[in-house]
Amino acid sequence: TVTHVTDPDYPATTVYGTVFLDGTYYVMDANARIWGSAINNPLSWSALNVIEAQIEPDGGVALARQLNYIVAFGAYTTEFFYDAGNPTGSPLLPYISAMLKIGCATSGSIAQTVNTLFFMGVAQQKGRGIYKLEGTQPTYISNAVMDRILNADDLATVYAFCIRISGHNFYILTLSTSNITLAYDDATGDWKEWTSLTAGTVLSSVTLAYADYIVTATKAAHGLSDGAVVTIAG
Fold it and tell me: Are 47 and 54 in contact (CB under 8 A)?
């Protein structure tokens, strides 16, 4: 059941991201104001439970959580907040010494795995690049070739997610305008293009057989007399 929040103190518009920390739900508006709900009640909000990310006046882009910190991404800066348990107003206080001079280029680039937060960052002097947050420390993980691809895209539609394959954690980023999907292997630091291999035809029906940890996919009516067989081990 989906219930619409009707509390008049809930902000009219919010940026990407809803975060839960210590019983409170948090959202952020485009002016980088972080609003908190009542304890364990996302339907109840107070006009007093608000704090602003205001070290730089660059607005709000997205809200995320990293460990026990609220991460407020701006256009060119990132600020961290922690639960200080304030009895009135917002429970949060800023972790000022952790502020980053790196913002988030697009909220669609944000993805998380275990204790690592990935995002497409942007700096006023450097432009776009891919970063990962471990704790509150950013690490630049893209390269000059990657950055040229990122800076050439209009970021109209961007998707990202993390996946674990054969013991490796991958960050997958799709730039729809550029028609490219990029994959970062966090274990090796390698970037590759993520593609799908096809035989030039749409498979309308496939027969799957499983035996001895091997999956065999068979498509007979693909235009070849002997059929098509793909075997995946493991």
Answer: no
User: Which residues on neighbouring strands pair with residue 203, listed in sequence order?
Assistant: none
Contact between 103 and 77 (Cβ < 8 Å): yes
- Amino acid 81 reads F
Burial class (CB in 10 A: 0-12, 13-18, 19+), 12: exposed
The DSSP code for 16 is B
Beta-carbon-side half-sphere exposure of residue 12 (alpha carbons within 13 Å): 1
Phi, psi of 157 (to 5 degrees): -140, 115
- Enter the pTM of the model: 0.81
190-201 burial, b at 16+ Cβ within 10 Å, e below that, comes to: ebeeeeeeeeee
Residue 27, number of CB atoms within 10 A of its CB: 23
Model pLDDT for residues 34-87, shown as the tens digit of each residue = 999 999 999 999 999 999 999 998 999 999 999 999 999 999 999 999 999 999
Q: Which two tokens stand for residue 112?
A: 């998380």
